[in-house]
């Protein structure tokens, strides 16, 4: 729970539909840049903010600007300039998430290398926010395809990076096209004179905010990261739990709901675990911490706020299952281990799009974070065997075995079976719930490079074709979608097992996916609103889309046409892509 007198999101007077998302996501308290930036931006003031990458700047400007936005006006009202394509996509996706209860809201990321036709179509339909790199924004301004006359705010994100990449002049030219009365916010990790000149020229009486980044050397903590490339973070975590020498473990996730969900899944896999979050009563939280201290509980899955001030000496490992939103949270998290002079271990799960945060964390901790390889099935087998041998040795030394020795002699005499066979059978009975050779429990390899293939253990049974139905989703090749995006969205948001997702066929404007016939209306309703590649799935039972698409393709092939005009017969054609999930 938030400490007394601590600012909460409820105190910041965000629009109800924006605050509703904050509660759903599970954000508990704003970071310093958020608590100081949101009030003046809500008031319409210009702002000059100095803060490092990883301090929560995206939410700091997105939440107040979305609170002031008019969703009914189908024209750009917010323009965010970013130095890179990756940051543009990250900011756009974050804004789309924060605005999911603003009916009709659309945000468009624009950057070089992306299909210009797709951007033009979306601009013609009408978007309220544009996030892009200066070069591509300038292209649209020259073409007169992006109009800024209704613009209410411009955000310049990571201005010092713009300077390093030679974009400052382009930024100034773009600002000259914006209405004079608009609001402007500039964020930068450093404030070189060129950036300050832009601020003095284009910001009106700005409020200046400087967030000092806390750094730490965390000398006694060994830090590693695992590059998340597949769909199975839980499988990766299970392997780590099996192979590492762990006393107590603290696992951090972003939301209260996730603490309960992950703790339950770990319990189901045989690990002693419990949730710790702000929705629990004080008595229950204290009881959970006491169990961790006395060794009756080994794993606690917590949110940042719930774990604040937690001091348990036996915590040997901290796992960042969800990467934190800012570097200070990371430092606080891993500080829960390495107590009382002991060496601690910190493991961070990092998705490809989160690499920027990894760099920011390394800068904040003043330490490189080493990449780690997941334990193999052989590693886990060897560890289980060694643990079993240790159990045998400990029992031999500490227990009186005379009664059992006589029992074995009696059994051997009665059934004429050798001691070796009896011992092997007893070992099986003891370990059958947790086999020493976990071949049937673990996939041979966790999928990493192409998550849309091989996404389940070899021995899992696939849902039969008779139980499947074809569904249409409104995202296709032209939106940049790949089968892995679809699998990830449906399995994560629809809570479906990956083995229940069948064939995926990609077309230009839509895709088809085979799913179980008995999907509930609640699941379908939830999947309708899921966003993939900046498009809502809008899932529905298919009614001949594949046939009509194939017919259309046949005509285009016969007449040598594509959607963009005529082409040579010998050029490469875009056939529907089909992925069979084996």
Automatic annotation (TrEMBL):
Family of this protein: Belongs to the DEAD box helicase family. DeaD/CsdA subfamily.
Gene: deaD
Any single GO CC term annotated in Swiss-Prot or TrEMBL for this entry: cytosol
Name of the protein described by the UniProt record: ATP-dependent RNA helicase DeaD
Catalytic activity: ATP + H2O = ADP + phosphate + H(+)
Major place of residence: cytoplasm
Enzyme class: hydrolase
PANTHER family recorded: ATP-DEPENDENT RNA HELICASE DEAD, DEAD-BOX ATP-DEPENDENT RNA HELICASE 47, MITOCHONDRIAL
Organism: Desulfuromusa kysingii
GO BP annotations, alphabetical order: cellular response to cold; ribosomal large subunit assembly; RNA catabolic process
Segments carrying motif Q motif: 7-35
One of the record's GO molecular function terms: RNA helicase activity
Subcellular location: Cytoplasm
Domain (DEAD-box RNA helicase Q) ranges: 7-35
Keywords: ATP-binding, Cytoplasm, Helicase, Hydrolase, Nucleotide-binding, RNA-binding, Stress response
Helicase C-terminal domain: residues covered: 233-380
Biased composition (Polar residues): 540-551
Region feature (Disordered): 438-466, 540-582
Helicase ATP-binding domain mapped to chain residues: 38-209
E.C. number: 3.6.4.13
Compositional bias segments (type: Basic and acidic residues): 447-465
Lineage: superkingdom: Bacteria
Ranges annotated as biased composition (Basic residues): 569-582
């Amino acid at each position: 729970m938030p400490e007394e007198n601590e600012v909460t999101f409820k105190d910041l007077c965000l629009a109800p539909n924006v605050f509703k998302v904050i509660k759903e996501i599970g954000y508990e308290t704003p970071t310093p840049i958020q608590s100081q930036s949101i009030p003046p931006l809500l008031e319409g003031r210009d702002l000059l903010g100095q803060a490092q990458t990883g301090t929560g700047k995206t939410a700091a400007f997105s939440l107040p600007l979305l609170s002031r936005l008019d969703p009914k006006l189908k024209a750009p009202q917010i323009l965010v300039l970013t130095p890179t394509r990756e940051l543009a996509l990250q900011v756009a996706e974050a804004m789309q998430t924060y605005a999911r209860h603003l009916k009709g809201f659309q945000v468009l990321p624009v950057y070089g290398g992306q299909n210009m036709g797709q951007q033009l179509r979306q601009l013609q339909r009408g978007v309220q926010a544009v996030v892009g790199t200066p070069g591509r924004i300038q292209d649209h301004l020259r073409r007169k395809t992006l109009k800024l006359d209704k613009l209410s705010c411009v955000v310049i994100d990571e201005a010092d990076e713009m300077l390093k990449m030679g974009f400052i002049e382009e930024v100034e030219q773009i600002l000259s096209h914006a209405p004079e009365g608009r609001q402007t916010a500039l964020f930068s990790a450093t404030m070189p004179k060129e950036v300050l000149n832009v601020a003095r020229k284009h910001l009106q009486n700005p409020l200046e905010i400087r967030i000092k980044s806390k750094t730490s050397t965390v000398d006694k903590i060994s830090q590693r990261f695992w590059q998340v490339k597949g769909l199975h973070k839980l499988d990766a975590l299970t392997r780590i739990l099996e192979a590492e020498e762990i006393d107590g473990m603290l696992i951090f996730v972003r939301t209260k709901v996730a603490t309960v969900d992950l703790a339950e899944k770990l319990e189901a896999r045989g690990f002693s675990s419990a949730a710790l979050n702000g929705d629990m009563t004080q008595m229950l939280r204290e009881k959970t911490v006491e169990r961790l201290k006395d060794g009756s509980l080994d794993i606690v899955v917590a949110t940042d706020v719930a774990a604040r001030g937690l001091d348990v000496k036996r915590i040997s490992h901290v796992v960042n299952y969800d990467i934190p939103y800012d570097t200070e949270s990371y430092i606080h998290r891993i500080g829960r281990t390495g107590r009382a002079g002991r060496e601690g271990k910190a493991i961070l799960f990092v998705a490809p799009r989160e690499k920027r945060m990894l760099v920011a964390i390394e800068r904040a901790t003043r330490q490189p974070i080493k990449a780690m390889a997941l334990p193999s099935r052989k590693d886990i087998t060897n560890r289980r065997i060694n643990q079993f041998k240790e159990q045998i040795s400990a029992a031999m030394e500490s227990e009186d075995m005379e009664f059992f020795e006589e029992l074995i002699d009696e059994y051997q005499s009665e059934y004429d079976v050798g001691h070796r066979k009896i011992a092997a059978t007893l070992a099986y009975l003891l370990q059958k719930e947790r086999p020493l050779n976990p071949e049937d429990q673990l996939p041979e390899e966790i999928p990493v490079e192409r998550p849309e293939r091989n996404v389940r253990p070899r021995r899992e049974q696939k849902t039969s074709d008779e139980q499947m139905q074809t569904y249409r989703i409104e995202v296709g090749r032209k939106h940049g979608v790949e089968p892995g995006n679809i699998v990830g969205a449906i399995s994560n948001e629809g809570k479906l097992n990956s083995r229940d997702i069948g064939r995926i066929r990609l077309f230009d404007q839509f895709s088809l996916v085979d799913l179980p016939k008995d999907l509930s209306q609640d699941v379908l309703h939830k999947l309708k609103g899921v966003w993939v590649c900046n498009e809502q799935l809008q899932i529905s039972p298919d009614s001949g889309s594949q046939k009509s698409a194939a017919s259309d393709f046949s005509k285009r092939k016969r007449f040598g046409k594509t959607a963009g005009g005529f082409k040579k017969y010998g050029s490469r054609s875009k056939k529907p892509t089909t992925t069979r999930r084996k």
